[in-house]
Protein 1
Amino acid sequence: MRIAVLGGDGFVGWPTCLHLSDLGHEVHIIDNLSRRWIDAELGVQSLTPMDSIQERCRIWMEVTGRKLHFHLLNVATEYERFRGWLTEHQPDAIIHFAEQRAAPYSMKTDRHKVYTVNNNVSATHNVLAALVETGIDAHLVHLGTMGVYGYSSIGAPIPEGYLDVEIDTPNGKKEQQILYPTRPGSVYHMTKSLDQILFQFYAQNDGLRITDLHQGIVWGTHTDQTKRHVQLINRFDYDGDYGTVLNRFLIQAAIDYPLTVHGTGGQTRAFIHIRDSVRCIELALGDAPKAGERVRIFNQMTETHRVRDLAQMIAAQTGAEVAFLPNPRKEADENELIVKNDQFLALGLEPTTLAEGLLDEIVDVAKKYAHRIDRKRVPAVSAWTRDIAARIETDPEGKRLRSVS
Ligand SMILES: NC(=O)c1ccc[n+]([C@@H]2O[C@H](COP(=O)([O-])OP(=O)(O)OC[C@H]3O[C@@H](n4cnc5c(N)ncnc54)[C@H](O)[C@@H]3O)[C@@H](O)[C@H]2O)c1
């Protein structure tokens, strides 16, 4: 297949490109490198030393003899160029990662909120409008998030996208399946909820073939392909805005920094290893809906954990301390999360569990590159509201953390 990977320079995009290229697909990376610019804006860098995208592609060619094509293009603002690109290259599938993906970044200031909405909603809509206009029947696979469901504790498993409901009508009760109601907890999650509506409309109106992967928090760094050469290494974000909870705990343990748990740590989240994430994308590509079918939605996660349990698990393995800090987010202190992921298991996914993969990651990545960490960038300081901003901890290594629990 000829596959366009929008956002192919990112944390999940890059290993996906290598995985698909390794399988023999013709892979085209479309990226505006905005994520690299955001690193510059925030004054942070990936824990792992990342080469330029051109250099990464050159090394892949050297190691495997396979070409990765790179196109510098902003999917959100360069509609005409994107449409022209589609017409010229006629991809069989498009994988869409090209969005601003950090909830804390999306909540930093009004400017970050505006940027996140403009970038994410326009990127998704541009892809859909261009597919209709060009008449290209590519399967669109989008990376959404488990976070669109919100984190309430109703106790029932979260289904894969659709909820069975019974509606009272004058002729009695009628059964229907509706999109599971969203309850986004940040501007970023809100854009992913809007994406769902855009997909629903274009699948029903224009027969576009769309798969939406509601992904859990991705952890880990390496895949079989990124390990083939030191310069193919994946991005690893550890900072308070882009670092995801488990990866942050791993680096905190590696640099002898207390594991920073927000609030009571009673938040339950869904997780997936990066190796499984790329494999799921391969499986979804092989299972495309037909034109006229509704959007296919998968829950792309393999296990759920409570944040404080994760911290305690890592503390037990590494001897790190755990520190409970005020929560910068506006969210429930505690939530349950039960998630269905039967579809990927039925397609043959064999999950990497945390218990088996964890220590390798600490040793291989976090400790190896610990010298690149700026400790001042570790705390999460982006607050969800002004009131919360007044009480968040901006210097966790100061007085407060010296008295860890
Ligand atoms: N990382 C996770 O834990 C996680 C969890 C759930 C869902 N997701 C979703 O998966 C996708 C990829 O996540 P990631 O962690 O790889 O993010 P990332 O920020 O590392 O990668 C996103 C890539 O998209 C590019 N991009 C952004 N806007 C663009 C635009 N307008 N035009 C062209 N390129 C653009 C960026 O430069 C970057 O290379 C995101 O959509 C995210 O919402 C990620």
Protein 2
Amino acid sequence: MLGKKLKENFFVANIEPSSRSQEVEFIQGDTILEALLRADVEINNSCGGGASCGTCRVRIRMNRPDSVQPDLPSEIEQEFREERSFAEDERLSCQTLAKKGLEIFVPRFRA
Ligand code: FES
């Protein structure tokens, strides 16, 4: 899927641990979590987007030529990332706006 150009307002979700991936459409201003849920991608979000549980953690890569850089983390998200020792490419999907061409790695859904 890397070689194919994405339409405007789409990113790619890779569902782990399978190698399944799908293109996800978003509306400008959507968080990644909102877009994933609208596309019926199962992702944990125990606090409903309140930046307090960390279960919506995803990894974000920009390996595509059409990838748009995500915004920097807010102060609240950055504090959370530091407390939980997030890797450089890990973000709270409920706090990160969707951008074109991102590759999002979504961990296995745990009910
Ligand atoms: S849904 Fe709880 S931190 Fe994102």
